[in-house]
């Protein structure tokens, strides 16, 4: 955390090499133009350098490994899902039914799961993104140093709280507090579809609303931590330049910090979205399942892909029923695939950062 | 913040700088308010969750037995015992996962930043890292389950959990390391090359140390994420109320698994164990973060 | 630099080694709760495999814990690890030979499951021993209603949405003296797949004309699902007008009122005694020592004072085919479980086995080779 200084330091000074204890460095610092014999010696090494080849091989191998792993996951999910999809008696993509009790008569469709997953994740992201940006800006630009450090620490600590604790907190502590708010929203804004009375008891707090808020709290530390690291690294020259032009604090932030950190912030948010889409235990604990289908209200219950799988996982005893859940997992996988592809194309548009 | 807008007004002579207009001042004020506001809004749930954990869990961990004993031989409603078995499991699973993931993660990041350039493999890898980030823990767990247990026919073990956690940890390590490496100025690399230092040595001795504290923070965050993961331990490790030192065989508890397990225990003892385990996990991560800070201080390049 | 880095790594390793190597101990003396009282004393031959592995139904976890405590008291060097990962996993891992016996909420199904089990037992049949009975309570919370009587038919109507109000004539007919409010019934069910749901639906099918089907997913088409027993019990405790089915111990610990069941011979309150009566009347449909229960004989019981809504869970063991060490330990454990181990069950929310039934189990255990 104390190395932005290093990063900003003029790189040519050469004393980094000296401190690192690189053998050639002291000579180099003393004599900017190295004597010819040494130079030719180094050049002959260029051709041999097995270290470089090995290191390059290792790095490339790791890259290939990642690609291979994803391929393996995708392949495994598809192979396991296909037989069950063949046995499905309803349309997998458009049905809201989910009944895998009788392996001989599988009826499962993902529409409801997809909607609930997306709504919970979007709600969480909608809440967490601006707040995370606020906190990251606060910690890097606005906060007095004395406040920034401990608070940054608290935020990091939150990432350590296991998800089941968030689930229990949402169920026992936050749920009851949200009850009057939910009731008020339903009573006064119920004519807006997303605030309509849902298919579960508001009093129990097992709604998309509660789940979304809890997931937002859960992804907040991740988005904040990554954004903070990036915002911190805004080149001082840019900031000073903006100040010299008479910019207000906000203008400094808007013209230097945000453009510099935008790509990092978006990728941080995608990290958060990935976690929100796949959040398992907390959502399973909080969200009530409902017997009627999801009606686009925040006060509906339902299941997300991950919570549905988690709730059934201990009873995966028939390959055909398990395949139904794996098929759901596959859709979740594809969903994150698509989301990330979109995010990448956004990030690719901002070259300043790269 | 306010000094910027206040200063010009205090000048007696007509200012060289333009006076900051009302609209700009308003925007500045609004932004300041929003930033402070979001800070305050965030403080509430964050402190609230921590408070809940501390308030409910703290009395439990004061007992010395909590740190030195397992729950072996206790009935659900019998109080006492400790979480030693679960603490051990969490640490060992986390550490083994870290030992596997950190080198892979860092090497992938090095490949992406230093070697890959704009090659097809590099682009594919970046994309795949993004995808891996989004892989839900339960899917990672099921994947390891089929490969490790169904395909290779090996038993459920803590090692299998570590392998599933690797899938979750690697992308986080790659991401943060990549971000940090990108920020290392090219001038540093060029200076090193100019001195005739091989590329790999430049990376190991110049680039990584410069980015090290950021990388360590990333690793600690990643560890924090995986140590609290519940889905993989649920699928891949059997719970045991006793101490099992063997990573390769037999049931082994971990703190998240202990919590899930005690949810089936409706008694006061179960309540205490859940929150005790929660605060223990938070404390463990705190310890890791402190270690990271200490190490990154020690390793940070000297600036003076 | 190098030294520093190594130093840091060393420090990390040292710190963790210190923590991990510190004297952790499995040695607990139970505080609170009674030490295993000597129930029915049966001679136990200790020895064999020092640490057994078992896995399966989470519904019997607390009972197995009690058995383990008694087992360790009887055989000081022995231990057993029970992993409550679900009936499906229990059967699967038993059949795969990963655990020494499985715990399941239902007997092995004929066909593939039974064949796989026989293969695992070196071509000997596997036996289903119903060792743990957990009563399922119909827990409710309605302010002003302390006592509620339901019969299977009305219960089925409530859980399928046919009866929607607490003051519905169907409920009133059974509770003439209760002040039933004009309130909606909030049905709470298990959102996770569970044997409790399965047994509850089977009971309703047998006794209450339930036509929605059974299985581990709730089929009633009404209400709201919460995760696990802890979730449903907590939910019912927090809204007025709620009703659910939940393991007895959770109903007790969450202070839910439990409905009396009228199976035709008067309202019966849930107690160890009334549930024991239902077990007494249970018929075995398996052959010889394979004690597969005819659940209809429990659910459909008309015996006076018998509480019919029970979850029977089995231990699935090999009749033969264990190696000598394992066989010895399995026998010792099951013997303890069926005798002294029963003493603590009532406290944990289960029903101790009635004497006649206990004898059947002990005979079967003795026959394991």
TrEMBL record, chain B:
Localisation: Cell membrane
Any one GO MF annotation of this record: phosphate transmembrane transporter activity
Entry-linked InterPro entries: MetI-like, MetI-like_sf, Phosphate_PstA, Phosphate_transprt_permease
Residues in ABC transmembrane type-1 domain copies: 87-296
A biological process from GO: phosphate ion transmembrane transport
PROSITE patterns named in the record: ABC_TM1
Transmembrane segments: 34-54, 91-113, 125-148, 154-174, 206-227, 274-295
Keywords from the UniProt entry: Cell membrane, Membrane, Phosphate transport, Transmembrane, Transmembrane helix, Transport
GO cellular component, one term: plasma membrane
UniProt KW Transport keyword: yes
UniProt KW 4Fe-4S keyword: no
Membrane topology of this protein: Multi-pass membrane protein
Annotated signal sequence range: none
Domain of life: Bacteria
Similarity comment: Belongs to the binding-protein-dependent transport system permease family. CysTW subfamily.
PANTHER family to which the protein is assigned, alphabetical: PHOSPHATE TRANSPORT SYSTEM PERMEASE PROTEIN PSTA (PTHR42922:SF1)
Function in brief: Part of the binding-protein-dependent transport system for phosphate; probably responsible for the translocation of the substrate across the membrane.
Protein name, per record: Phosphate transport system permease protein PstA
From TrEMBL, chain C:
One record GO biological process: phosphate ion transmembrane transport
Keywords: Phosphate transport, Signal, Transport
Source superkingdom: Bacteria
Signal peptide per UniProt: 1-30
Family of this protein: Belongs to the PstS family.
Binding-site residues, phosphate: 57-59, 87, 105, 194-196
GO cellular component terms attached to this protein's record: ATP-binding cassette (ABC) transporter complex
Taxonomic lineage: Bacteria, Bacillati, Actinomycetota, Actinomycetes, Pseudonocardiales
InterPro entries, per database record: ABC_phos-bd_PstS, PBP_domain, Phosphate-bind_PstS
Molecular functions (GO terms): phosphate ion binding
Protein known as: Phosphate-binding protein
NCBIfam families: 3a0107s03
Record domain PBP: where: 40-339
């Amino acid at each position: 955390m104390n190395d932005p200084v290093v990063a900003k330091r003029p790189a040519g000074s050469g004393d980094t090499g000296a401190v690192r204890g690189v053998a050639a460095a002291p000579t180099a610092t003393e004599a900017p133009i190295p004597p010819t014999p040494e130079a030719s010696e180094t050049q002959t090494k260029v051709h041999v350098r097995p270290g470089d080849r090995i290191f390059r091989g290792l790095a490339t191998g790791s890259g290939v490994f990642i690609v291979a792993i994803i391929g393996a996951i995708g392949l495994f999910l598809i192979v396991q899902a296909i037989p069950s999809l063949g046995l499905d008696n309803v349309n997998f993509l458009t049905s809201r039914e989910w009944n895998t009790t009788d392996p001989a008569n599988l009826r499962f469709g993902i529409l409801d799961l997809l909607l609930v997953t997306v709504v919970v994740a979007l709600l969480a992201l909608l809440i967490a993104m601006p707040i995370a940006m606020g906190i990251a800006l606060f910690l890097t630009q606005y906060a007095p140093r004395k406040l920034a450090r401990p608070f940054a620490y608290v935020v990091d600590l939150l990432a350590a709280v296991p998800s089941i604790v968030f689930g229990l907190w949402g169920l026992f502590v936050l749920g009851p507090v949200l009850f009057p708010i939910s009731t008020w929203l339903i009573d006064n804004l119920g004519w807006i579809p997303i605030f309509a009375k849902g298919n579960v008891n508001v009093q129990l707090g097992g709604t998309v609303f509660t789940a979304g808020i809890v997931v937002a709290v859960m992804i907040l530390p991740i988005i904040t931590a990554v954004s903070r690291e990036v915002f911190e690294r805004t080149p001082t020259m840019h900031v000073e330049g903006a100040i010299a032009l008479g910019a207000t604090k906000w203008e400094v932030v808007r013209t230097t910090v945000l453009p510099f950190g935008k790509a990092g912030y978006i990728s941080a948010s995608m990290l958060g979205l990935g976690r929100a889409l796949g959040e398992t235990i907390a959502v399973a604990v909080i969200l009530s399942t409902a017997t009627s289908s999801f009606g686009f209200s925040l006060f509906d219950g339902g299941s997300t892909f991950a919570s549905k799988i988690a709730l059934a996982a201990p009873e995966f005893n028939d390959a055909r029923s398990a395949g139904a859940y794996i098929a759901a997992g596959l859709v979740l996988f594809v969903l994150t695939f698509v989301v990330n592809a979109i995010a990448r194309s956004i990030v690719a548009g901002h070259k300043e950062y790269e | 913040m306010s000094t910027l807008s206040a200063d010009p007004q205090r000048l007696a002579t007509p200012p060289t700088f333009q006076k900051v207009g009302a609209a700009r001042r308003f925007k500045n004020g609004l932004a300041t308010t929003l930033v402070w506001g979001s800070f305050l809004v965030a403080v509430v749930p964050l402190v609230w969750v921590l408070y809940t954990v501390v308030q409910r869990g703290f009395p439990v961990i004061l007992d010395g037995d909590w740190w030195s004993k397992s729950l072996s031989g206790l009935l659900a409603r019998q109080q006492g015992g400790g979480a030693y078995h679960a603490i051990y499991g969490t640490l060992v699973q986390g550490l083994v996962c870290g030992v596997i993931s950190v080198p892979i993660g860092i090497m992938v990041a090095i490949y992406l930043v230093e070697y890959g350039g704009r090659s097809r493999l590099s682009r594919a890898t970046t994309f795949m890292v993004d995808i891996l980030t989004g892989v839900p823990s339960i899917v990672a767990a099921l994947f390891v389950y089929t490969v490790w247990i169904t395909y290779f026919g090996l038993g459920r073990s803590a090692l299998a959990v570590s392998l599933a956690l690797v899938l979750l940890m690697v992308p986080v390590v790659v991401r943060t390391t990549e971000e940090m490496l990108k920020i290392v100025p090219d001038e540093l690399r060029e200076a090193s090359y100019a001195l005739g230092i091989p590329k790999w040595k430049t990376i190991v001795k110049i680039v990584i140390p410069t980015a090290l504290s950021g990388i360590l923070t990333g690793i600690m965050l990643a560890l924090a994420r995986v140590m609290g993961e519940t889905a993989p331990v649920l699928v891949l490790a059997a719970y045991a109320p006793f101490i099992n030192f063997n990573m390769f065989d037999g049931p082994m508890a971990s703190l998240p698994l202990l919590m899930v397990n005690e949810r089936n225990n409706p008694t006061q003892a179960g309540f205490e164990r859940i929150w005790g385990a929660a605060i223990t996990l938070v404390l463990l991560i705190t310890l890791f973060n402190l270690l990271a800070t200490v190490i990154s201080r020690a390793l940070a390049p000297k600036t003076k | 630099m190098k030294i520093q880095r190594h130093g840091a790594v060393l420090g990390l390793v040292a710190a963790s080694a210190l923590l991990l190597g510190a004297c952790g101990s499995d040695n607990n003396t139970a505080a609170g709760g009674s030490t295993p009282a000597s129930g029915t004393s049966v001679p136990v031959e200790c020895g064999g495999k020092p640490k057994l592995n078992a896995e399966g139904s989470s519904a019997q976890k607390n009972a197995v814990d009690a058995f383990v405590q008694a087992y360790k008291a009887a055989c000081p060097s022995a231990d057993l690890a029970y992993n409550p990962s679900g009936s499906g996993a229990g059967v699967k891992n038993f059949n795969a030979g990963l655990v020494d016996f499985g715990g399941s909420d239902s007997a092995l199904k004929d066909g593939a499951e039974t064949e796989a089990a026989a293969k695992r037992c070196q071509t000997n049949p596997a036996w289903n021993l119903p060792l743990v009975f957990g009563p399922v309570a119909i827990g409710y919370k309605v302010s002003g209603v302390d006592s509620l009587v339901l019969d299977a038919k009305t219960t089925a109507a409530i859980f399928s949405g046919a009866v929607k109000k607490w003051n519905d004539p169907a409920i009133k007919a059974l509770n003439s003296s209760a002040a039933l409010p004009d309130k909606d019934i909030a049905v709470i069910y298990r959102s996770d797949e569970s044997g409790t749901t399965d047994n509850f639906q089977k009971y309703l099918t047998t006794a209450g004309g339930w036509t929605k089907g059974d299985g581990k997913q709730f089929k009633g088409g009404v209400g709201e699902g919460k995760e696990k027993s802890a979730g449903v019990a907590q939910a019912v405790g927090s809204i007025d007008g709620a009703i659910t089915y939940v393991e007895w111990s959770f109903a007790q610990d969450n202070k839910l009122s439990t409905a009396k069941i009228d199976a035709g011979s008067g309202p019966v309150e849930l107690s160890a005694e009334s549930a024991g009566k239902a077990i007494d009347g249970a018929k075995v449909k398996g052959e010889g020592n394979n004690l597969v229960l005819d659940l209809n004989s429990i659910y459909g019981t008309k015996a006076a004072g018998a509480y019919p809504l029970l979850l029977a869970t089995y231990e699935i063991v090999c009749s033969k085919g264990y190696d000598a060490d394992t066989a010895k330990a399995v026998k010792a454990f099951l013997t303890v479980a069926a005798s002294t181990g029963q003493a603590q069950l009532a406290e944990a929310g289960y029903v101790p086995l009635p004497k006649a039934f206990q004898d059947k189990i002990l005979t079967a255990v003795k026959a394991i080779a």
